Give the backbone structure.
Amino acid sequence: MNDYDAILIYDGECPYCSVAARALGKLDDVGAISWYDEAAQEFLRAQFDETPFAMFLVDRRRNRVYAGRSAAEELADRAGTPGIVGSLVRENYDRIAQVVGLASGRGRDPDDYHEIYPLADDAAGLFDGLVDAAAERPEALA
């Protein structure tokens, strides 16, 4: 069993997002699953009472859910990029998401979720399901 402390939920149908998720393979404590995965959908319903379309980083150790710009900035920090890179990613997240959406042919824009949220108790109970889903799809980070 993998010992992921965090799971990235990302647009698994977007080739650019998938490349970014694969780059996380260097972070031993971060797994990744597609937003379209049933475990991700179940988690998002428990956390937000809906299934917002955005990138999320679920951190069990810190009991936080980073969304959108906050998730991108946190991932940049964890990857060891200089602080200015994380700030640039955060400040330009909407523009980057729009360009990636157009380039990938994605027919929808991400929902407006960009904060750091406390991990809800019901959602925390589903974290192991996210880990299991990420472990079943190691090719996502290969």
About this structure: Confidence is low (pLDDT under 50) at residues 138-142. The helical segments are 15-23, 38-48, 68-78, 83-91, 93-104, 121-124, 127-136.
